[in-house]
Amino acid sequence: MRSSAATSLLVGAVALVALAGLAQTGRYTIRPGDNLSAIAARNGVSLQALARANGIADPDFIVAGRTLVLPGGGPSGAPASNTIVVRPGDTLAAIASRNGTTVGALAAANGLRDANLILIGQRLVVPGGPAAPVDPNAGTVTVLPGDSLASISARTGVPISTLLAANNLRTTSMLYAGGRLLLAPRNGAATGALTRCPVSGARFMDSWGFPRADTGFHEGIDLMAPRGTPVVAPVSGYVSQVVGTIGGRQFRLTGNDGTVYIGSHLNSFGKAGTVKAGTVIGYVGNTGDADGGPTHLHFEVHPGGGPAVNPYQLLVDACR
Questions:
Q1: Where in the chain is the domain with CATH 2.70.70.10?
Q2: What value does the mean pLDDT of the chain take?
Q3: Looking at residue 3, what is its pLDDT?
Q4: Potential cystine with 173: which of 169, 190, 192, 244 (Cβ 3.0-4.6 Å)?
């Protein structure tokens, strides 16, 4: 038994030395449970660059045991992670705290399904810096090509459930590269479902969070439709009309529950004052800073009159 144990320790030591050598040359060996997005995030490289450097056609298909080349060896030519050994009395929270990371990031980096289950002597990867800058003041993160909610959660340490709640998304929602996601909910007020689709037959995608030159953050969804398409009140409430240089002709509908709905770039106004859901309150256009561009309705939702929330899922439920 002693001989067998000694042999195992020797083999383990040799393997660790070999892995250390690989890491120093900018390589990484795929472990069971790994995915390419998480590997890219914790080594400070983009998913596309990692796939290209290793000739991977399908980023969703990788094999445990394969050694990957890290483009540029990660930041500063070195891997953006190190390893630690679990000590008696350790918890994942304690390890995360003393290594300057989070439980979520640590669990994601090591493929841990149960954050409460770690073993003495187990070797854990401690993820390094994020692959993309996270602005703590703005409280947002930029979606990278190939990103998933899991990879964003891993590099920011924000639980997927929080990302979903903050951005009014579902687990099946698509992410678009270049957009920004909120890292924490900024409006605790609730909003109900839309009674009517604001623009029947409109085409739209989840453009929430896309960069804008004027305001810095796209706080609504663009409903693409021909000029003159009727815009109806999505709920019952009170409509006021505004004209500005950015929003052009714009309606502001205060619903009976206090939620404020804003529609911009109207070609012309419809009814104002007290309206019922389905009443025509405007017509699609491209006024304001949308002049010269495609005709559409920029649609925002502000629960309780506070900060905007992503209206994409509300529109999917009402319009599709």
A1: 221-319
A2: 77
A3: 43
A4: 169
DSSP 3-state assignment of 129?
coil
Q: Where are the beta strands (DSSP E) in the chain?
A: 27-29, 67-69, 81-85, 123-127, 134-135, 140-142, 180-182, 221-224, 230-232, 237-244, 248-255, 260-266, 268-269, 273-275, 280-283, 296-302
Residue 73 pLDDT exceeds 50: no
71 or 135, which is more confident?
Answer: 71
> Is residue 155 predicted with pLDDT exceeding 50?
yes
Residue 124 CA to residue 82 CA, distance in Å, equals: 8
CATH 2.70.70.10 fits 221-319, yes or no: yes
Q: Which part of the chain has CATH 3.10.350.10?
A: 2-127, 134-182
- Nearest Cα residue to 242 out of 217, 262, 216: 262
> What CATH number should be reported for the domain whose range is 134-182?
3.10.350.10
Q: Decide if pLDDT at 210 tops 90.
A: no
Bridge partners (DSSP) of residue 297 are 223
CATH 1.10.10.10 fits 2-127, yes or no: no
Percent of the residues in the chain that have a pLDDT greater than 90, as a whole number = 30
